[in-house]
Amino acid sequence: MKILTVLTSLFLLTTLAATQDRPNITAQPNTVFVGADGKFESAPDTALIQFNISTEAETAKAAYDQAAREAEQTRQILRTNGIDPKVAEIGYYSIQPEYDWKNPKRKLIGYRVTSTVSLKLKDFAKIGPITQQLADADVSTSQSLSYTLENIDEAKAKAVEDAYRRARLYAEAVAHSSGRTLGELSYASVDTAENIRIMAPMARPMAMMRAQAEVAAPTEEFTPQTVNVTAHVNAMFTLK
């Protein structure tokens, strides 16, 4: 009897927790409950350039000094393009020893300094010059470019509007088919998601990019991929 009581209590607690996480909607008389998906496609408003600064030297100080010089070159490239270096963000920085792993004693052969830098741009026209100048200066061993939408709330709102329009259209079809008239909205729930597509990375040897410096930049004349925002709306309407 005690075991049965415990099992019953656990069942009730589990049911209560599930109800709190995902509330159930009880069907009401003279109502119609519908769900619909909506979407909104927007051009990106921000370009994200990511690259790294990596140097090697026999001593930690020499590797550090070389990285400092390349970082200053990077700052100068940004200034030349009218960008304050402070807007660039360092996401990772390390000084690590390098060993000769072919040697059984793992002899220390030098040090490597590595840092990753991220730069957000609103002016897409600066993407080509900056990536090319970084390649010409031999500052970075790799680069990647992606596009995103920072003003995402407005796009989500438009996706919700599209989903609600579809939900109401479906509800009106049900009401019409049953010989009724659609009334007011009595309940609604909203769920949104964004699908930001990333461009193919430009992570390739800098020598290859320098060889292409005389032609147009890899991103020239191409249109940035759009950002898709989706929404799902559940809605309950009264029926007259």
Secondary-structure map with pairings?
Layout: H1 2-21, E1 31-42, E2 46-57, H2 60-80, E3 89-100, E4 107-121, H3 127-136, E5 140-148, H4 152-177, E6 182-196, H5 206-211, E7 227-239
Antiparallel strand pairs: 1-7, 2-4, 2-5, 3-4, 6-7
Task: Please give a structural write-up.
By secondary structure, the protein is an alpha+beta fold. The chain is built from five helices and seven strands, in the order αββαββαβαβαβ. The longest helix has 26 residues, at 152-177. It is elongated.
In short:
With 240 residues, the protein is an alpha+beta fold. It has two domains: 29-45 and 149-240, Translation Initiation Factor IF3 (2-Layer Sandwich), CATH 3.30.110; 47-148, Alpha-Beta Plaits. The chain is built from five helices and seven strands.
Shape: elongated
Number of strands: 7
How many domains would you count in the coordinates?
Answer: 2
Mean pLDDT: 81
Q: The biggest beta sheet, please?
A: 4 strands, antiparallel
In the CATH scheme, the class of the largest domain would be: Alpha Beta
Key descriptive features of the protein:
240 residues, alpha+beta, Translation Initiation Factor IF3, Alpha-Beta Plaits, 4-stranded antiparallel sheet, 3-stranded antiparallel sheet, 35% helix, disordered N terminus
